[in-house]
Amino acid sequence: MHIQPRLLRAHVDNRSHNRPMLNEKQQAREQSILAAAQTLMATYCRGVLTIGKLALALRMSPSTIRRHFTDIDEILAEILLRHLTEIARAIGKIPLGDPNCRAASRAAYIEVTRTGWGGLTEAHLLLIRERHSLPEDLAKPVEDMRHLIGEMLAGEEGAIALTLLDTPELQAAQIEAMLATTGPRANEPKAPPAKPAQPQTHSPASSGHKPHYRDWKAAKLHKKLLAREARAGPAAVA
């Protein structure tokens, strides 16, 4: 029976409830591996890259790369998850009280995913073009996080919004106009049902600062990000 090495490593890491922490030098090396792999896969494609070719490009041994990542698929998945985390953080900065919170969130999405001259960033190009090549165990967390981001951006029209936002030929104003035609106010948060007025009570538990989130989907995504960062350590947060 053949078992992928990354699954064996994941099993050991899960059993110990912790991925080994990286020191500053190891974090820098891991980042250089991810940056080089991102550029090479964006320039060529996932299919042409191997651990051996990546090691040659980086002037390091394949065993050094495998100390961080067992295969190219794991490297690609890490690049995509870090990119999605960056998108989620940008969206999370939009306050719930903003009357155009979803439109502002979509603008933040464009800001993170496009270059200064309007093309897609390397990481986002890989997300669109290469994520479908990932094996199921690595594809699922990527697709789950992307789906939640879509719901934060446009609710039930999240898939449509992502398709439009990931089309570099479309500008923000064009995307907003197209979303406006998908349904009556489909791109804005639904108003909660009216509730009877009740006396206001103040308790210490309700007086603390709480982060602003679009809805429970956004809170769920935030929980995923915190859990991922706790497992990965400081390297994933940098």
For this entry, give a set of tags.
single chain, 238 residues, mainly alpha, 12 helices, globular
Give me the oligomer status: single chain
Q: Compute the average pLDDT.
A: 83
SSE pattern: HHHHHHHHHHHH
Q: What fraction of the residues are assigned to beta strands by DSSP?
A: under 5%
**What is the CA-atom radius of gyration, in angstroms?**
20 Å
Largest sheet: none
Uncertain runs are 201-213
Q: Which range best describes the helical content: under 10%, 10-25%, 25-40%, 40-55%, 55-70% or over 70%?
A: 55-70%
Counting H and I runs of at least 4 residues, what is the number of helices? 12
Assign an overall shape: globular
Class computed from helices, strands and strand pairing: mainly alpha
Query: What's the total number of strands?
Result: 0
The rounded distance between the terminal residues' Cα atoms is: 38 Å
